[in-house]
């Protein structure tokens, strides 16, 4: 396989990412401080913020690898540079690129932006999950499976926003048929539905089998593009059409938690680190809950969020791209 430059965006609005990348490439001298950890080199406006982002990135790299793969990643041969632009008014977003060549992955590059709070609780875990998948799979995934899974580790407020968008898209004819979605290796022109639908389907599957089974499902599907076979094996679902029908019905019913027997299997499927909490559809997944460290970050955010109206974003928090 030829070298493939692969990029995952956290945010669906392409022009946000593009604008941000231009700013970075333009050599903005506002970036002042570097911080180095075992696997990341962080460039951020202040030494303190660079250190906080570096510590969080390492923690996510460790915890998320355990959640998805059951074991931490080995140290990368060269660190992943992170350029962080932090300001309260900035829309939350990020982009991570890397190169696949002959089964190896290298050439990491991560850019993140937003308020520090949103960077730490959503953008960073999303982007770090892209790196965990790239390190594990060493090849591109279908976009829905990649972005969808990465969105499942974001803060509950961000995930609730994706769910609201999904309902809007499904009721205005912007949903993507599964046979098309599963074949997408690139972002479609109408990019937002891919994120919200990918997130929702990833959530549906993870609630029924945990994160590690999801990884196994993607792994088998990638091998020969036999997604129906992989669905049958991992979820006992007969193909894309039945999956689409049952997922759609689940969305129509308000995304109810799966039956206890199914959820119980999912919980047992997690070997390490998962704390089980939350029963409501927008709360943490029953299966594949966050590790203690992620839970504690969420708890801090939840405490702050209680001072706001629940699940109503401040006008600035989604940036200028509404
Ligand atoms: Zn992404």
How would you summarize what this structure contains?
The chain is of the alpha/beta class and 322 residues long.
Essential attributes:
disordered C terminus; alpha/beta; 11 helices; single chain; 322 residues; 2 domains; Glutaredoxin
Task: Report on the architecture of this protein.
This protein is α/β, with parallel strands linked by helices. 51% of the residues lie in helices and 13% in strands. The chain is built from 11 helices and 6 strands. It has a 6-stranded mixed β-sheet with strand order 1-5-6-4-3-2, sandwiched between helices. The chain is globular and about 50 Å long. The structure holds zinc ion (ZN). The site of zinc ion has 7 residues, from strand 1, helix 3 and helix 4.
Kindly provide the radius of gyration, computed on alpha-carbon positions and rounded to a whole number of angstroms.
19 Å
Strand content: 5-15%
Proportion of residues in helical segments:
40-55%
The major pleated sheet works out as: 6 strands, mixed
State the secondary-structure class: alpha/beta
Sequence of secondary-structure elements: EHEEHEEEHHHHHHHHH
Number of helices: 11
**How many separate domains?**
2
Shape: globular
Model regions low in confidence, pLDDT < 50 over at least 5 residues: 11-29, 267-289, 296-322
N- and C-termini, Cα separation: 39 Å
Average pLDDT works out at 80
Write out the strand line-up for the largest beta sheet, numbering strands in chain order: 1-5-6-4-3-2
| Bound ligands, each once | zinc ion
Q: How many DSSP E strands?
A: 6
């Amino acid at each position: 396989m030829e070298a493939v430059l692969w990029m995952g965006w956290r945010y669906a609005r392409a022009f946000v990412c593009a604008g941000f990348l231009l700013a970075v490439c333009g050599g903005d001298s506002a970036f002042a401080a570097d911080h180095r950890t075992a696997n990341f080199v962080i460039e951020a406006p202040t030494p303190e913020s660079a250190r906080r982002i570096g510590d969080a990135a390492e923690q996510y790299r460790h915890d998320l690898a355990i959640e998805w793969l059951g074991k931490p990643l080995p140290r990368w041969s060269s660190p992943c540079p992170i350029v962080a632009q932090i300001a309260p008014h900035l829309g939350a977003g990020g982009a991570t690129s890397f190169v696949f060549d002959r089964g190896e992955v290298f050439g990491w590059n991560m850019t993140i932006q937003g308020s520090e709070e949103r960077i730490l609780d959503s953008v960073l875990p999303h982007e770090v999950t892209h790196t965990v998948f790239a390190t594990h799979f060493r090849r591109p995934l279908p976009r829905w499976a990649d972005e969808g899974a990465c969105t499942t580790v974001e803060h509950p407020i961000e995930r609730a926003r994706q769910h609201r968008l999904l309902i809007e898209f499904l009721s205005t004819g912007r949903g993507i048929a599964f046979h098309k979605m599963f074949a997408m290796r690139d972002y479609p022109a109408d990019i937002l539905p891919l994120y919200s639908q990918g997130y929702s389907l990833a959530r549906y599957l993870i609630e029924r089998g945990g994160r590690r089974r999801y990884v196994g499902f993607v792994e088998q599907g990638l091998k020969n593009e036999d997604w129906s076979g992989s669905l049958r094996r991992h979820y006992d679902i007969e193909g894309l059409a039945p999956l689409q029908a049952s997922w759609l019905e689940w969305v129509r019913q308000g995304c109810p938690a799966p039956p206890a027997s199914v959820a119980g299997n999912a919980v047992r499927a997690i070997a390490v680190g998962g704390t089980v909490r939350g029963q409501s559809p927008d709360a943490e997944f029953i299966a594949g809950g966050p590790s203690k460290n992620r839970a504690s970050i969420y708890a801090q955010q939840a405490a702050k969020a209680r001072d706001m109206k629940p699940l109503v974003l401040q006008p600035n928090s989604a940036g200028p791209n509404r």
